Amino acid sequence: MTATDPKLTQKKSAAKAALSHIEDGMILGVGTGSTVNCLIELLPKVRLKGAVASSQVTEDKLKALGIEIYDLNQLGVLDLYIDGADEIDAKGNMIKGGGGALTREKIVAAASNRFICMVDDSKIVNTLGKFPVAIEVLPQARSYVARELVAMGGDPVYREGFVTDYGNVILDTYDLDITDAAKMEFTLNNIVGVVCHGIFASQSADLMLKAGSTGVDTVVF
């Protein structure tokens, strides 16, 4: 992606819009991914007390800027979590996890009062599911979980050479029926061996900053 790529321009616009939601002295939950990277570059413009990172990659980027990192166990509920999405629908349900940080992302989202999702307009969908659902699985359960996903109509693909921050593996799963995101989230949660997955329905976005060719629209769910 080059500096003149319109999608990069949109990501930067969404990130700039997100700054207005960050208050001085806040401990901010910070997500992972290309749009979040645009936000991280701007964070020196605000006076954060610190941040909770959703991945080791994000933590390293924040530390490089001199931003203090907090362990979520040290804190109560965060005021705000800001992240991107691989897909988002009209209700704020999302697919996340393309970068493999889905479990930490979901934990920080669940521990935050508000979740702002920054996206370019290519991420907006009517029904989730064109993008594969990343499913984090205990290594010894990989084959079992894959068989369960196939029985559900899914097509799981082992993410070769990738290990999550928690030492687990990922099955990127295509062709799941996600017309009811909350129902599919519940079903996947109850497969033995699944640690977490990339459907964010219980932890859906509260607000979306949607960047397009004409600017950034704010959508409240």
From TrEMBL:
The keyword Isomerase is annotated on this UniProt entry: yes
* GO MF annotation, one: ribose-5-phosphate isomerase activity
Pathway terms, separated by semicolons: Carbohydrate degradation; pentose phosphate pathway; D-ribose 5-phosphate from D-ribulose 5-phosphate (non-oxidative stage): step 1/1
Keyword field: Isomerase
Catalytic reaction(s) noted: aldehydo-D-ribose 5-phosphate = D-ribulose 5-phosphate
Q: Give the SUPFAM superfamilies listed for this entry.
A: D-ribose-5-phosphate isomerase (RpiA), lid domain, NagB/RpiA/CoA transferase-like
| Biological processes, Gene Ontology terms | D-ribose metabolic process; pentose-phosphate shunt, non-oxidative branch
EC class: isomerase
Enzyme Commission (EC) number: 5.3.1.6
Q: State the source organism's domain of life.
A: Bacteria
The keyword Isomerase belongs to this UniProt entry's keyword annotation: yes
Chain residues that bind substrate:
T32, G33, S34, T35, D83, G84, A85, D86, K96, G97, G98, G99, K123
NCBIfam families the UniProt entry points to: PRK00702.1 (NF001924), rpiA (TIGR00021)
Protein purpose: Catalyzes the reversible conversion of ribose-5-phosphate to ribulose 5-phosphate.
UniProt similarity note: Belongs to the ribose 5-phosphate isomerase family.
Q: Return the protein name.
A: Ribose-5-phosphate isomerase A
Which species is the source of this protein? Moraxella catarrhalis
